Amino acid sequence: MEKLTKILLGVALVLVGGIFALNATGMTNIEIFFDGWWTLFIIVPCAFGLVREKEKTGNLIGIGIGVFLLLCCQNVLRFDMLWKLAVPAIIVIIGLKLILTAVFGDRAVKMITDSRQSGGNIKSGCATFSGQNLNFAGETFEGAELNAIFGSVTCDLRSAVFDRDCAISASAVFGGIDILVPDNVNVKVSSNSIFGGVSEKKHNPDNAGAVTLYINATCIFGGVDIK
Fold first, then answer.
1. Is the pLDDT of residue 203 over 60?
2. Residues 60 and 26 sit within 8 Å (Cβ to Cβ)
3. pTM of the entire structure?
4. Which residues, other chains included, contact 57 with Cβ-Cβ below 8 Å and sequence gap of 6+?
5. Residue 218, CA distances (Å) to 55, 124, 176 in order
6. Mean pLDDT of the region 212-221
7. Looking at residue 140, what DSSP letter applies?
8. Do strands 152-156 and 223-226 pair parallel, antiparallel, or not at all (unpaired)?
9. How many CB atoms lie within 10 A of CB 51?
10. In sequence order, what DSSP letters do the residues of 20-86 get, joined into one string?
């Protein structure tokens, strides 16, 4: 997917450069700049992100805002309608995403629920206007729920014991969560982000026979870093 993105971006740059060159020599007189051309700096990156990234919500909102601004510049819509329509549209998108997540479920959330019902030791970490450090050195890790609201949570699993697949549910609202994972554990991430995101710095390939840590991250003006 990254290769395709680079190819498409390269083709676009070649076309734009070619048009500039032809216009400069007088062979053509193609007008590239149009009313609202600057909105492409919003629409195009979000469109690429929609293809490349797992999390779609933020990119969908960005494309919607970019298209709206473009239509305003083209005198199709009025600028004063932006705040009247943007906020309801964002609320609807978030609501639909929550409904779809609840209906179709998430593997990490289901694993935590099943583990708790079977008597599993699911840890909890919550930081509200504060910070919390959780270190599981020498402990058998079975799963955790982490919440950072205007605060930060660090979950250190580098010396924890993993004897089977497990999961973490992480929610960062105007806050941040760091999850430190050992190299011998596979990581699978699913995320729901609104003006936030997940940074997955561990890019370990699937290790045959290794356990997998499933992480479900919800970020609203916050972030989750997996290191």
1. no
2. no
3. 0.60
4. 93, 94, 97, 192, 193, 194
5. 10, 16, 11
6. 85
7. B
8. unpaired
9. 12
10. HHHHHHTS-------TTGGGHHHHHHHHHHHHH-S--HHHHHHHHHHHHHHHHHTTSS-GGGHHHHH
